[in-house]
Amino acid sequence: MGRDSKGLLLPSALMAVAGAVTAAATAEWWLAPVGLAAAGLFWVLRPRASSELPSGLDAAHRFRAQRLLETRDRLMGELDSAPAVVKETLAVSAIRVRDLSQKFLRLVAKHQEIEGFLRSEADRQGVLEREQLRRQMESAVDAIARDRFRAALAAKDAQLKSRDELRRGLDRLDGELATIQASLDNVIVQLVRMKSAEARGSFESESGQVEKTLGALTSEIDTVAETLESVYSSESRQRIG
Question: Can you tell me the distance from the alpha carbon of 68 to that of 66, in angstroms, rounded to the nearest whole number?
Answer without folding.
Answer: 5
